[in-house]
Design goal:
Helices cover 17% and strands 41% of the residues. It is an alpha+beta fold.
């Protein structure tokens, strides 16, 4: 009789213990992240390294970092400033042979060992003059020197032909081969610019991460000239805006992990 009573007492005590353990409520300071209940995706360590602990993403606000995570990532920012960046005109130039018939606007240059021509828009052609230096590159990446020989009248389609003399072509180039050409022109008016490290190039365009209160919001931009380590921002930012310069790709990974199914979103 005593044995049966003791067994019943132990069983009841064990059941009460299990019931209390399973039904315990979370306190505010118990370590559970209650932000999950608000639709905020949070990066956690130990899941592929895509998002560090203390990093989260919230639609409409951007990537949110704790002070500790911000320091561990070495995050750096800078203000959008106006700079007198040179204007870089780029176009494709096709090598032609001796059967090309030059126009009166073309000038001969003793140092030229080859010639090529390309098309540019009329408003861009108005900035070009004979004698301006041209940087050329072959498909293999070989750098070649060049000079503007002439700017011909507008064609039927509205573009203008630019004839380029190649100063160190030798026998390496073949007729009809395409080269990438660029002409750097000075610009008097200052434009909004950011360091090249602030720019994120994605499949759907160019972006920067702007400071949005305590978050970093990915903002679409339209770029212009790129030179001297800076990129012209033609649209999307204003002087005085603050953008992230480092680590932009890490912020992008945190956002991707949260929005593309890699993060823990509750």
């Amino acid at each position: 009789m005593t044995f049966r009573f003791t067994a019943c007492f132990v069983s009841l005590g064990l059941a009460a213990f299990l019931s209390a353990g399973c039904g315990r409520k979370h306190d505010a300071g118990d370590g559970h992240d209650h932000k999950h209940d608000k639709g905020e995706a949070r990066g956690e360590p130990g899941h592929g390294g895509g998002s560090p602990g203390g990093a989260s993403f919230k639609p409409g606000r951007g990537v949110i970092l704790t002070d500790e995570t911000r320091q561990s990532l070495g995050l750096e920012t800078t203000e959008v400033a106006e700079r007198k960046l040179p204007f870089e005109l780029r176009f494709a130039a096709q090598v032609f042979g001796e059967d090309h018939k030059p126009t009166a606007l073309e000038t001969e240059h003793a140092e030229c060992t080859g010639k090529a021509s390309g098309l540019v828009a009329q408003e861009q052609a108005a900035l070009l003059r004979a004698g301006q230096a041209v940087a050329l590159a072959s498909k293999s990446g070989e750098k070649l020197g060049g000079i503007v020989l002439g700017v011909n009248k507008a064609l039927a389609i509205g573009d203008v032909e630019v004839v380029v003399g190649i100063t160190n072509a030798g026998a390496r180039l073949k007729p009809a081969e395409f080269l990438s050409a660029s002409i750097t022109l000075p610009r008097v008016q200052a434009v909004s610019a950011v360091p090249r490290s602030a720019l994120l190039r994605a499949a759907d365009g160019a972006f920067v991460y702007t400071v949005n209160g305590d978050a970093y919001f990915r903002t679409a931009v339209i770029t212009g000239a790129e030179t001297e380590g800076f990129v012209e921002i033609a649209d999307g930012l204003f002087p005085g805006d603050v953008v992230v310069t480092k680590p932009v790709e890490r912020l992008w990974l945190i956002e991707l992990r949260a929005t593309k199914g890699g993060g823990h979103s509750h």
